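= Tokenised fold =
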Amino acid sequence: MHPTLIKNARIVNEGTITQGDVLINNGIIVEIGSISAKTGDTKIIDADDHYLIPGMIDDQVHFREPGLTHKATIETESRAAVAGGITTFIEMPNTVPQATTIELLEEKFARAKETSWANYSFMFGGTNDNLAEILKVDPKKVAGLKLFLGSSTGNMLVDDPQTIEEIFSKTNLLISVHCEDEETIRKNMKAALDKYGEDIPIAEHPNIRSAEACYLSSSKAIELAKKTGARLHVFHLSTEKETHLFSNKIPLSEKKITAEVCIHHLWFTDADYAEKGTRIKWNPAVKTQKDKDGLWKALLDDRIDVIATDHAPHTNDEKNNVYTKAPSGGPLVQHALEALFEMHHKGKISVEKIVQKTAHNPAVLFQIEKRGYIKEGYKADLVLIDPNAPWTVTKENIDYKCGWSPFEGTTFKSRITHTFINGVLAYENGKFPNRTRGERITFNR
């Protein structure tokens, strides 16, 4: 592999933006500063004063493989992620079959090694009856344990209180949870069905999967984590009320209880259901403007630690069903960073904060080795972004296998121009010049 020199970049790292160059060799950042090419075979890329940031580490995606590959595959969605400046992803266990045994988990790792464009890890899935398997998981090689404490498919809903406490007490894995109280949701759904029948208006979604359902489940999980000393990470907060369960009093590296927010909960509100319909049907639901404002406040004051996508594609035909039959979830990895930069243009968030929440903090939170920063000796997972290159999301430039996006018709002011995976240029101005092979990430635990 020839060395690559990125010249004239605005390097964003650890809360600062500095003008400079970055030299990459053998997949590693070897020098940062004012640099001349060391050898005649060095490839030089002129950044033209664009932002150079560490690639986004997306801690929650659903790439649908195995078993649901009519929606997406590890190959198609990792490629779309690379186009979106996501260089590392952590994928969820609710595939078919579910990754609830070591053997099935390793089969997913083997498939990613063959096909993934980006770097990868996978969550192991907990159930009501697989504690013995959970205790076999090596925390240095696996991102963590995923528990569905609400809203799951198959047998992955973990709803036995004794089992949940036993898992929290015995595992040393990072536990990531989906929190929505099923009893509350079932009660709300029955009331909606009684009132509307099968064709429930989509605007009822945040009333069915209510703020109360989220808070009840999240608060119980946090109470249990405090009781047992478990390391807890709460996925996709969607309510203002939940944000008060989390603290910004200590550094992230010392926190035992952390939180994530997703792009869609920062961008959309319940006012958008009228236009977007089931395309913005997610679990947990997109809720009110007050909730969105509260999520932003908690993100910026560091009660919420990371931003993710919860990328979860479905086909157009599946989404274009009545409410009760339309699945929840949507594709987001290709447009997440550019959506965040759009929020930057609107004065909502600084570029430095975007990098903190999408790269630095996921690396710290999951204790990922040698990624998430622009530092000498670190893996060269890098992204160049032109902040002044407007473009519009259309069906023709969507890379998801499902072929649609909730951002269709949206014009972003910023554009990702280059993405490097382990020092290899994977994406450049709408093209994929090199077929990269992502690496299985490791953890310093």
About this structure: The chain has a mean pLDDT of 96. The longest helix spans residues 211-228.
